[in-house]
């Protein structure tokens, strides 16, 4: 429960800091996108895909808490490993969010002073992963699931696995949004960045062997 409270505090703080300490000022861009693409059936889609569907997801990813709450098994080395994974996930997600925020604040400052903005964030954890915040979040949930595995409740990882599948889909949506909405110059840079950088798991930079092959694709991108 202490780990859950740490996770909740980190995520809540990150949300309000991003929204400049306001509540409900902006709608999630994914919901806005679905509404624009489905104007006539949005009320139905909103109820099932946004409202109703998230409830079993929430129950699923918290199944490990059910296991641990009704268990009297002594704390073991496997539990210690699960705790370490949870704390590592929280730390990675926290660092990634802070680095992203600093990047955005720096570009805001540069814009106000008429300086050239930094096109792509590829320093810190973002040098080794395109979505280190997502990786940290997933590491957290799989660390929590390990508590159940240690108790023999393997079924409790089903919700965690489903959550990973959903986040994989969100990752694809996020990158598509980048390539659809960014300027041609930034999109070309991001394609290069994507070629040499891991999606989730922080890994050493890949070679640039395929980057030049994308040059024709860059030139085909529409102008701003």
Q: How would you sum up this structure, described in words?
A:
This protein has a single domain, classed as Four Helix Bundle (Hemerythrin (Met), subunit A). The radius of gyration is 20 Å and the shape is globular. It has helices at 2-18, 29-37, 42-52, 54-61, 63-69, 77-112, 132-150, 157-181, 184-196, 215-220. It has 224 residues and is an all-alpha fold. Residues 208-224 have low confidence and may be disordered.
Blueprint (SSEs and pairs):
Elements: H1 2-18, H2 29-37, H3 42-52, H4 54-61, H5 63-69, H6 77-112, H7 132-150, H8 157-181, H9 184-196, H10 215-220
Helix pairs in contact: 1-6, 2-3, 4-8, 5-7, 6-7, 7-8
Brief overview, please?
With about 220 residues, the protein is an all-alpha fold. It has one domain (about 55-220): Up-down Bundle (Four Helix Bundle (Hemerythrin (Met), subunit A)). The chain is built from ten helices and no strands.
């Amino acid at each position: 429960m202490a780990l859950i409270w740490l996770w909740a505090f980190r995520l809540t703080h990150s949300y309000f800091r991003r929204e400049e300490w306001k509540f409900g000022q902006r709608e999630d861009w994914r919901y806005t996108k679905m509404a624009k693409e489905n104007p006539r059936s949005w009320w139905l889609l909103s109820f099932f895909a946004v409202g109703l569907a998230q409830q079993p997801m929430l129950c699923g990813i918290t199944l490990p808490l059910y296991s641990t709450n009704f268990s009297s098994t002594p704390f073991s080395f496997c539990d210690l490993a699960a705790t370490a994974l949870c704390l590592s996930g929280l730390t990675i997600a926290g660092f990634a969010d802070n680095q992203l925020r600093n990047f955005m604040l720096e570009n805001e400052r540069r814009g106000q002073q008429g300086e050239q903005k930094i096109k792509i964030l590829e320093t810190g954890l973002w040098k080794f992963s395109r979505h280190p915040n997502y990786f940290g979040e997933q590491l957290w949930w799989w660390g929590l699931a390990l508590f159940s595995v240690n108790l023999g409740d393997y079924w409790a990882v089903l919700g965690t696995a489903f959550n990973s599948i959903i986040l994989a889909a969100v990752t694809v949506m996020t990158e598509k949004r980048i390539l659809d909405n960014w300027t041609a110059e930034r999109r070309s840079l991001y394609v290069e960045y994507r070629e040499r950088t891991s999606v989730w798991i922080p890994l050493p930079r890949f070679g640039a062997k395929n980057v030049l092959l994308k040059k024709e694709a860059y030139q085909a991108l529409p102008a701003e």
